[in-house]
Structure of E3 ubiquitin-protein ligase:
Amino acid sequence: LAAQGGRRQAASTPALSSAGASGSPPGGAGSGKGSRASLGTLNRSHLQRLAIAQSRVLIASGVPTVPVKNLTGSSPVNPALAGITGILMSAAGLPVCLTRPPKLVLHPPPVSKSEIQSIPGISHSCRKTTKKQAKKGKTPEEVLKKYLQKVRHPPDEDCTICMERLSAPSGYKGPQPAVKPDLVGKLVKCSHVFHLHCLVAMYNNGNKDGSLQCPTCKTIYGVKTGTQPPGKMEYHIIPHALPGHADCKTIRIIYNIPPGVQGPEHPNPGKSFTARGFPRHCYLPDSEKGRKVLKLLLVAWDRRLIFAIGTSSTTGESDTVIWNEIHHKTEFGSNLTGHGYPDINYLDNVLAELAAQGITEESLAQEKD
């Protein structure tokens, strides 16, 4: 095999032909035993030097090349396979170029304290949250009364909560609310119609924070809050640019949530929960839109909507802190996992995700009030 590659590439790749000749036993490459013996004498370093020498000649001569990645890796098998692949492809007359895979860049270069700046227009550089108790004193019926209109003649359709006809009593079989099962109400903003019995049961099974979210269109009534565990959020400017945002510096956000015990609003009250991967570093461009996103993220943090306790989609671990449907960029200088830059649509996408949680520019005015 090595001799065959030498005949085809003798003019342009002397390193290949000479290495093949030195590694071939008497009898030539035509013998099966000789071929196996010659390949057996080439260890990992020999294969890499042989393939790299050929690729340098091909690149210098301007020949179009086919990249073979994973030259380096945690296992010695991957580099060896890459080298063997290069030899086999060159023996078949195919040009080969061995390249190194791109590197994952999660964090920026080191930054001293003197280089860190506060963000203009945003007071402080750190916020802590504690467990906020739900507002008490109002029954679920009193809360929902603000968002509903009674319907005397229900439409001929199903209630999307219990899937029974609206003209029939509610099919909810759980703990019975203090509402007649045949009453029907319409939400004032989106005009979707449900059994009052079903809406009260849905509210009782939620966070009981005085807000309601339509199960059909997700329209939010009141101020939605979440069940994020206590923690700390830091934010500041660092003097480095993100890929795709070379014209501005970077906003770095650091979330830190310690493990603890689940409260009554969590999936398993009284059971401990884990908090993997903290502190978590996230990045935004220090542009006008980037600062707008940060301000809305601060509202989401105060409303306990950025994290939740549940089952991790990556590890399968239950009773652990997970992201809560508001995506963050956790890669600083690469985008190998899809959580980095450049991403021209990210800022618009995260604004839409925040709006789905009821957090818009109007929320900023509400927080000030």
